[in-house]
Amino acid sequence: MNKAELESLSSIRIREAIKLLENDEFNGAYYLAGYSVECALKACICKQVKEFDFPNKKLAQDSHTHNLTDLVGVAGLKQRLKKEEQDSETFKLNWAVVKDWKETSRYETNIEKTRAIDLIEAITDKQSGILQWLKKFW
After folding, report:
1. I want to staple 75 with a disulfide (CB 3.0 to 4.6 A). Which of 5, 44, 69, 88 is the partner?
2. pTM of the entire predicted model
3. How far apart, in whole angstroms, are the C-alpha atoms of residue 108 and residue 115?
4. What's the start-to-end Cα distance of the chain, in Å?
5. pLDDT tens per residue across span 47-89
6. Do 112 and 25 touch, CB atoms closer than 8 A?
7. Contacts of 7 by beta carbon, 8 Å cutoff, 6+ apart
8. DSSP alpha helices (H): ranges in 23-138?
9. Quick one: CA dihedral 11, 15, 16, 18, positive or negative?
């Protein structure tokens, strides 16, 4: 996958998550919403890779994770995340919700409506949403 494909996939997945939520499909909504953030973070990582540069093996290996907190570090956004959390209490709360998403949620069958809503709102919040913030860096 390349940067443009990951950006597109991030947008597609959050739209799909919202549609699933609107149709009371909370398990899928939760999983796809988190996956949209994973794709956005991986698009940010792609920005670090320069065409014709020899690949950085550690960067490539570290990128192959689904852990959102780890991906923030790989994307070089740890300090920016910390500053944004200091500047905005709402953003800090949104990140606290989003960072707990796990790719294994795709196997969960009992995600409550409020949990799916909280995740999607934390990601899409117009003022302090995680996806809006990540788009600044991809």
Report:
1. 44
2. 0.92
3. 12
4. 14
5. 888 766 776 788 888 888 899 999 999 999 999 999 999 999 9
6. no
7. 39, 40, 43, 138
8. 26-46, 57-63, 68-74, 78-87, 89-98, 113-124, 130-135
9. positive
